[in-house]
Amino acid sequence: MHGKDVETNCKMLRMLLRKEGVLSEVAENGQIAVDLVLSDVDKYSLLLMDNQMPVVNGVEATKRLRMSGYKNLIVGVTGNVLEDDVGEFLAAGADLVMFKPLKMAQL
Predict the structure, then answer these.
(1) CB–CB of 4/47 below 8 Å?
(2) What separation, in Å, do the N-terminal and C-terminal C-alpha atoms of the chain show?
(3) Tens-place pLDDT, residues 10-69
(4) What are the tens digits of pLDDT across the range 69-95?
């Protein structure tokens, strides 16, 4: 699953994932992402959390999921390359942080 970003970026990411045979789902905001994951924790093996999601940002959504016991892979996604932004994601429990624009080779 990946949190919603700019519509064009979402479409491009879904197309790249589909091309590789990966099923994906988009959450409209961070709160919806948390709710979806916690309603069926085994459904999602990888989460891409955008730091700019509305309602609840990716850092906070990651923190909430980890506090709830979610153990699968969470990748923070950001357009910011500042060390503090990366550190925030990692401190919240992200397994790694990737920078936009994402490329299939990175995934």
Answers:
(1) no
(2) 13
(3) 777 778 778 888 888 888 899 999 999 999 989 999 999 999 889 999 999 999 999 999
(4) 999 999 999 887 778 889 999 999 999
Task: Write down the pTM of the prediction.
Answer: 0.85
**Helical H runs in 1-107?**
7-19, 30-39, 58-67, 83-92
Nearest Cα residue to 54 out of 107, 104, 4: 4
Q: Are 22 and 45 in contact (CB under 8 A)?
A: no
Residue 100 burial (CB < 10 Å; 0-12/13-18/19+)?
A: middle
Q: Between helices 58-67 and 83-92, what is the axis angle to 10°?
A: 20
